Amino acid sequence: MSDNMVSVDSSVSPAEISFSDVFNVAVPFIDRHLDEGRGEKIAIRVHGGGDVSYATLAEHVNRAGNALSDLGINKGDRVLMMVKDGAEFFYIFWGAIKAGILPVPLNTLLRAKDYAFMIENSEASGVIYSPEFAAEVEPAVEQSPHKPKITLLTEGEGETIAKHMASASPDLAPVPAKAEDDCFWLYSSGTTGSPKGVVHAHKDMVVTSQQYAVGVLGITEDDICFSAAKLFFAYGLGNAMTFPLWVGAQAIFYPGPPSPDACHEVIEKFNPTIFYGVPTLYAAQLKSMENSEPDLSSVRVCTSAGEALPPDLLKRWTDKTGIPMLDGIGTTEILHIFLSNQIGKVKPGASGLVVPGYEGKIVDEEGQEVPTGETGALMIKGNSLLKLYWRNPEKTAEALRDGWMYTGDTYYVDEDGFFFCCGRSDDMLKVGGIWVSPVEIENKLVEHPKVLEAAIVGREDDEQLTKPEAFIVLNDAGDAGEELEAELLEHCKSGLARYKYPRWFNFVDDLPKTATGKIQRFKLRSN
Ligand code: 3UK
User: Fold this and answer.
1) Contact status, residue 338 vs residue 382, Cβ threshold 8 Å
2) pLDDT-based confidence at 527, cuts 50/70/90?
3) Half-sphere exposure of 320 (CA within 13 A, CB side)
4) Peptide bond connecting 14 to the previous residue in cis, omega within 30 degrees of 0
5) Mean pLDDT in the chain?
6) Whether the predicted pLDDT of 232 surpasses 90
7) Nearest CA, atom 28, ligand 1
8) Domains of the chain, CATH where assigned
9) 0.85 cut: is pTM over it?
10) 412, β-bridge pairs
11) Which atom of ligand 1 has the smallest separation from the CA of 434?
12) pLDDT tens digits for range 156-182
């Protein structure tokens, strides 16, 4: 095989994927489309913005890669991206990879404190951010003891990557790499402790695209992809970037918050064929459709991930729209979905079957596989697992066990091979598909002068979707009441990412604890 090639043998199931010895993944995802005659085809359409062809995409990727190198960013360096959905995200992400630099897309809903940690932890050489996020990114760069070589806006006034790209060369040879080499990072959070840098290799995006997008969704170059989940989530990154680029399809972007009405407007305007959402959004879309009748007929399939899809929500969605919805579970560490329902093979309440190419098993505390129908820890094997958590050998060893990934999810598998989710084995919550650590909200609450202790647990709302509930011990029980609730709500919202606040408050006399003083959150859960 010549350099930078990947070959897929689909005559066998699961398809066999092999890589050339020299392999930079930017070539098959970006440059290949020019060789295959897609230069004029529109790759990216942005609501309220323009269209970008595959030829323009390839040129801007080269310019971005050159601009980063010209600015003194070296091979292997990390560049943090707090970048909104749109073409610039593609340019920076792929330009970095083509130049051998590691892009690290970050959740754009985070706060300065979170970014300061990530700048320091990754020892980032560069920080590139959309103007919309300046208020959190700029103080983070100030606060961090580690100073990136460059801090650049994507566009607008002042020093921007766009200006550097304009004067950079439009030609860039891919930096030689290997399929197993570090390619990009994402950050993942845990119950306690700080977020962990998840290191992915060049091959991983090929594996997820081929195994899930082609294997399960049957994606082709005629598809048009629209993901309500943003590009900085592993879910969105696959949905709207790697999957369409893998087959030469088209992606649609809406740069703002994905409200139900905004999603409906985008679907009516751009006619996507695949829509990727999360249960919380689907529930809100159904609510909005009580008063409106959006035309969703372009969509041939929608996917649900990030949190479990309640069977009732699935039923109401299919009754109302007739569009098949596939629940599937993925993780940042495995990069995308590894258990999924399939078109024509859906069991309500199940996360689905193992995606061909992965292996799944349920084990007990000793690591022994349990019989069908019994609950245990979900373990996954496959070719897109993280290489390691950056500078965290303990967590890496906990997660990767003899080539299997310990997901932290509790599951059972039925006689037909469908996997059913029974919750997390830690106290982490998924709220609207996004990680929420109970400890982080608890710590914030305890910062309030009237709060002595706090515990956060997940509680299902009337749509069976998990939201945070607070149990609070006050210094002075007499302060309890609606006024204090409002104050604590504001306190959380002002210091934490916007989605990390309790939806219910309970003032209690004490919290259940172990002999060693650890809060027993499971005793507070009502479901
Ligand atoms: C939970 C689910 C039940 C589960 C993700 C699609 O969510 C993604 O990645 P994260 O790292 O979170 C992973 C955790 O989220 N989860 C995700 N999907 C489901 N639980 N049913 C589901 N369908 O606890 C898992 O361990 O944020 C989703 C594709 C790529 C992803 N990274």
Assistant:
1) yes
2) low
3) 21
4) yes
5) 96
6) yes
7) 330
8) 22-201 (3.40.50.980), 211-383+404-424 (3.40.50.12780), 431-525 (3.30.300.30)
9) yes
10) 420
11) 27
12) 988 999 999 999 999 999 999 999 999
Distance CA 459, CA 465 (A): 8
Query: If you take atom 7 of ligand 1, which residue's CA is the nearest one?
Result: 306
420 touches ligand 1 (CB under 6 Å): no
From 232, 274, 304, 307, the mutation candidate for ligand 1 (largest count of ligand atoms within 8 A of CB) is 307
Would you say the CB of residue 339 lies under 6 angstroms from ligand 1?
no
Give the burial class of 194: count Cβ atoms within 10 A of its Cβ; 0-12 exposed, 13-18 middle, 19 or more buried. Answer: middle
Whether the Cβ atoms of residue 35 and residue 63 lie closer than 8 Å to each other = no
Place of tokens 């689909």: 10
Per-position DSSP letters for 130-195, written without gaps between them: -GGGHHHHHHHHHH-SS--SEEEESSSSSSBHHHHHHHS-S--PPPP--TTSEEEEEEE--SSS--
What pLDDT does residue 516 have? 78
Q: How far apart are CA 281 and CA 260, in angstroms?
A: 7
Q: How far is the CA of 305 from the centre of ligand 1 (A)?
A: 6
Q: How far apart (Å, rounded) are the C-alpha atoms in residues 337 and 28? A: 21
Q: What integer is the mean pLDDT of 243-264?
A: 97
- pLDDT tens digit sequence for 464-513: 999 999 999 999 999 999 999 999 999 999 989 989 999 999 999 999 98
Contact 8, 20 (CB under 8 A): no
Residue 128: closest CA among 173, 163, 100, 176? 163
Pocket test for ligand 1, best of 281, 329, 395 (most atoms within 8 A of CB): 329
